[in-house]
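Session log. Operator J.P. requested a structure for one protein chain; no other inputs attached. Running the standard single-chain path with token output.
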Amino acid sequence: MNGNYLEDNTHKRRLTYLLLVVAPLAFIFVSLFLGRYPVSISDVIYILWCKISGTPCSLPEICQTIVWDIRLPRAILGAMVGGCLAVSGAAFQGIFRNPLVNSGILGVSSGAGFGAALAIILFNATAPTYIFAFAFGILAVVLSYLIAQVYNATPTIMLVLGGVIVSSVFSALISLTKYVADPMDQLPAIVFWLMGSLASARYQDISIAGIPMLIGISGLLAIRWRINVMSMGDKEAQSLGINPVINKGIVIACATLATAGAVCVSGIIGWVGLVMPHIGRMLVGNDNRILIPTSLSLGACFLILVDNLGRMLTGSEIPLGILTALVGAPFFVYLLKITKGGGW
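Structure written below.
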């Protein structure tokens, strides 16, 4: 009987992992024929087959461009960004033992926002914007971590307070860049970037930002069992042979790489790192060994869905940050109600 139970449990886990992989792929495929320019499912399949196999395609060039060069990289990048934000949020919630933590808790989003705004003012070009956003996002987390070292340790409260301080400083600097920016050209570009969008997604963005995102996600997936131990508290982790300071640093580094890579190509997209991990817990529980990949899949599916809604609801695209806030804010109120403002 025990053997049958273990066999059934293994079968269910394999089925769960398969579903977590298939779901984002299905969302990506569906997004290829959704939009104001109609493309049938059969045409999408035919275009994909022609591009992958290298055979000539008889469909109009504009149809091929829309599916292969516009919608596909946008859907892939949306899946990567959503997955990174969600999995980073789940990791931070685990090590900080707080359900109200998100992927930007240590200031990476505000730091990246300032870096992008500064690059727009100085260069007004895509490549420097990506570089500055990524670099300042990393810098913000490093500063938060250094502030937490005041007492020669990295207690949770000091890390969070450090993130609040750094976020406040970079938010002020973002306001300063808006104030000095050219209102005819630079200011609209800064505002649009800060609201979050995948409208300019290209394969080049995937190849550049995909490196830190994949490194960060791979690291979190590899050490997700340690997040279970650290979520029990520092003393319990030490008693089980886990160094909480070193392992928190590893988790923070991986989550920061993933988040900074995502934010530098998509802008600031809120609520994904808060909402998706909680939906994952409702589905699979608190075990980070399955919660981390579940959050990854849910975040990917959610952002693809929101992006499709943003480009289909109106004649002009709605920024992703607006739509995710409309979903996340009511959920946050519900979260405050069930937690009563307390910890985990």
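Operator note: Residues 83-339 form a domain with the ABC transporter involved in vitamin B12 uptake, BtuC fold (CATH 1.10.3470.10).
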